[in-house]
Design brief:
This protein is an alpha+beta fold. It has 19 helices and 27 strands.
């Protein structure tokens, strides 16, 4: 490897830092401004809507209500077809299901006119009792989705009469019997809150009709190909009539895996024939898109007195909000990618329901359910260790999955044999992390003598690398006439640096330098198909496609050079700069080959292609360790150090991998200690700006220590696995554990606030 495993800076890093990239809003020119009139009620039916005064206003081009849009239900979830998310929404509906739900679309020549027109629209509502507490949703008198035409592509366990959007169950062994035979049992319930994405660039898109009469949508999206399909269904037009272009994106974190805005300017363009643009402000981004699914998870773990885990049972409830985007998949992943961690258990089970409520929709967010499941499971493991009086690190080392193991939850191969874990250094990650944090010296805690106590806590996690049997990607690479390459991709770089690492892979295979690789993404008319940048798939899935395309290109260079030299391909060698005969008699530079093929006697544009869709999802692993200082008088928590040791297979780019880990840890620390989406008693979101919704700043974060314990994944590109999601999962349980070790208070409901800690301290004194 000449380029892979090198700490190369992002190819667009300096441009981003100096403000040069072109984002969605930068490309728009004189479009109609689209605004949305939103519901003031959490649950209501529109009895009448009067738009006459608004339509007469000078500069108003278009006002649309539920009577003016196709009556076809769809999902905004960016998932491969057939989507597991229910088709439970219309572009505009006569029912509004949360405060902020869409009532009317207004398009005007400028923002001032659109907002003025919005105020002139009169709506008469029949108000219903909203479902706001997800623990009471199944017995509530209101049905969030009373419509008869709600559709699911396959059975996800929906029971809409009980407000159940989806159900899931996976079980191995006899859980009840193993729990009955366990000498020690821990049973506790944990709550994880809704969390906002907090990306810098809010949601935005614009649309226009091109010179061929096709609808073109320019959008800040993670899922351009899925957006094309979603909009085609919503507008009832063929996919062939839609083109989606993705410019530079200012962050996504899973939020832009949902097509939250694209359909609104698109329908205006179809109605008026004019370009149209929508840009959500920060309040709309907070309250009218998606958040993390809040969950309640009851965990029951049984073991013997030596700490050999016999059974794990997780009973869960998830809040999907008003619509079911990602409801079933997030919920299933919360168990599917947590239970295999403890491979020695004889019986495991994960089951429960996802319920509709009259709150903003939940959706994809980094960690995608594993974050919630890991908080519950790892907190329970730490409580088991305390009950057994066993070092939590030793308890884990005794029970965790190891390389060479198989696990029924992870699934089997096409021939029915269990999938063997081919790469795992989790045991070494734990050992290395203990040394970095000083576990043996600091566990459990130390009284600092000033009313404060320092202590350490830990957690482990896993994730996946793409969705097996579903995620696919293709890559195309072409040799240009002066010897450089263009790499065409459908994957989305939203700041994680995927353009850079995919270019590194191509450069390594083609034995060239990074400046010879030009990356172009993502345009559904030009780019090869890619399911999108989500599910920790880009490095693993798209990376494998890039390798195949690059190898195809290398082979074609040799074949065509052989034709130009009139000798056998087997007598040639390629070193990236030139093709030469084995004895060195004939040499053709790559520039000469490109020119002769493009404009000379060859008349052949060389194009390499490659596609990949994995049948397995090799998990990355992390061992996380938190050191905190807790003030016993106030409950205030200071994070002194956070250590994360990562197994992501081969590290393609150590610099970018480290940044991914650090960013994910901070996002996880935010969920653990600060972030909380709150609603009023009427269902109105109260945390809809950064003034009310606290995310950690640099002063809130102490030291971050990141290191890697590489494995080699044989199915991965250059032995790599994913890293994008797994990094967010350990902070919540590790910090909760450290707080317990400091002051003896178990916080089982996130976020871990000073108020909760102080109340726990006071309760312990009674």
């Amino acid at each position: 490897m000449n380029v892979v495993n090198s700490a190369i800076s992002k190819i667009d890093g300096m441009d981003i830092a100096t403000g040069k990239p072109v984002y969605t809003d930068d490309l728009d020119n004189n479009s109609l401004v689209v605004k949305i009139l939103r519901s003031p009620y959490a649950f209501a039916k529109i009895k009448n809507i009067d738009t006459q005064k608004s339509e007469k206003l000078n500069g108003v081009e278009c006002i649309l209500t539920h009577k003016d849009v196709p009556n076809v239900r769809f999902t905004m979830a960016g998932q491969s077809y057939p989507e597991p998310s229910p088709y439970d929404r219309l572009i505009l509906d006569e029912y509004v299901r949360y405060i902020g739900d869409e009532v009317a679309i207004i398009a005007a020549v400028d923002e001032k006119t659109a907002l003025k027109a919005m105020k002139l629209i009169k709506v008469d509502y029949e108000v219903y009792k909203p479902v706001l507490d997800f623990e009471k949703a199944q017995e509530h008198t209101s049905t969030v989705h009373p419509e008869d035409d709600l559709h699911v592509n396959f059975d996800i366990g929906m029971n809409k009469e009980k407000n159940i959007a989806a159900s899931y169950k996976t079980e191995v062994g006899d859980v009840e019997a193993e729990l009955e035979n366990s000498e020690v049992v821990v049973e506790e319930t944990y709550y994880t809150q809704a969390q906002a994405h907090g990306m810098m660039e809010t949601y935005r898109a614009f649309s226009y009709i091109d010179h061929n009469g096709r609808l073109t949508i320019v959008s800040a999206t993670q899922i351009p190909f899925h957006v094309r399909r979603i909009v085609a269904r919503a507008l009832q037009i063929p996919k062939s009539k839609i083109r989606v272009i993705k410019p530079r994106i200012g962050g996504g974190f899973g939020g832009k895996q949902t097509a939250s805005v694209e359909v609104f300017p698109a329908i205006v363009t179809l109605k008026t024939g004019k370009p149209a643009k929508i840009v959500y402000d920060r309040k709309e981004t907070f309250s009218c898109t998606t958040s993390r699914h809040a969950m309640k998870i009851k965990v029951k773990i049984g073991s013997d007195k030596e700490g050999n885990i016999k059974a794990i049972d997780m009973q869960a409830l998830s809040d999907t909000g008003a619509y079911g985007e990602h409801a079933w998949t997030v919920f299933s992943v919360a168990g599917h990618k947590t239970l295999p961690l403890y491979n020695q258990a004889k019986a495991v089970r994960y089951m429960g329901n996802v319920v509709y409520t009259n709150k903003m929709t939940a959706g994809a967010l980094r960690g995608y359910g594993v974050t919630q499941g890991i908080f519950a499971l790892e907190s329970a493991i730490n409580e088991l260790a305390a009950k057994l009086n066993i070092d939590p690190a030793k308890l884990r080392e005794k029970n965790i999955i190891k390389e060479g193991d198989n696990n029924p939850i992870l699934g089997g191969s096409k021939d029915g044999h269990p999938v063997v874990l081919a790469s795992c250094t989790l045991d070494r990650c734990i050992e290395k992390g203990k040394k970095f944090v000083g576990w043996d010296e600091k566990y459990r805690g130390k009284d600092m003598g000033n009313g404060k106590v320092r202590a350490v806590g830990m957690a482990i996690t896993m994730q996946g690398s793409g969705i097996p049997g579903i995620d696919t990607a293709s890559a195309v690479i072409k040799l240009n006439d002066d010897g450089f390459y263009t790499l065409l991709l459908g994957a989305t770089d939203m700041g994680q640096g995927s353009d850079t690492i995919l270019a590194q892979m191509a450069a390594d295979i083609l034995e060239t330098t990074m400046d010879k690789i030009i990356v172009h993404t993502a345009d559904t008319d030009i780019s090869p198909y890619d399911t999108g940048s989500y599910a920790s798939s880009t490095t693993y899935v798209t990376g494998n496609a890039v390798i195949k395309a690059s190898e195809d290109m290398k082979n074609k260079i040799l074949e065509n050079a052989a034709n130009l030299l009139d000798i056998s391909k087997e007598d040639l060698m390629f070193d990236g700069l030139s093709v030469r005969t084995i004895n060195g008699d004939n040499v053709l530079s790559i520039d000469e080959i490109a020119q002769r093929l493009s404009i000379g006697e060859g008349k052949n544009q060389l194009i390499g292609v490659g596609s990949f869709g994995g049948e397995t999802s090799p998990p990355p692993f992390i061992a996380g360790f938190a050191e905190v200082e807790v003030d016993k008088e106030s409950g205030k928590i200071d994070l002194i150090d956070y250590v994360a040791v990562v197994d992501c297979g081969t590290v393609i780019n150590p610099k970018l991998a480290r940044i991914q880990v650090e960013g994910g840890l901070v996002q996880g620390i935010g969920m653990a200690m600060y972030e909380d989406v709150k609603h009023s008693d009427a269902g109105k979101m109260q945390t809809n700006t950064f003034m009310q919704y606290k995310i950690p700043c640099r002063k809130d974060i102490g030291k971050l220590t990141v290191d890697f314990e590489s494995s080699y994944e044989p199915t991965g590109p250059f032995g790599a696995k994913s890293i994008g999601e797994v990094v967010i999962n350990t902070p919540s349980p590790a910090i909760a554990h450290a707080v317990y070790n400091a002051v003896g208070v178990n916080i089982r409901s996130l976020p871990i606030t000073p108020e909760k800690v102080l109340m726990g301290i006071l309760e312990n004194k009674i």
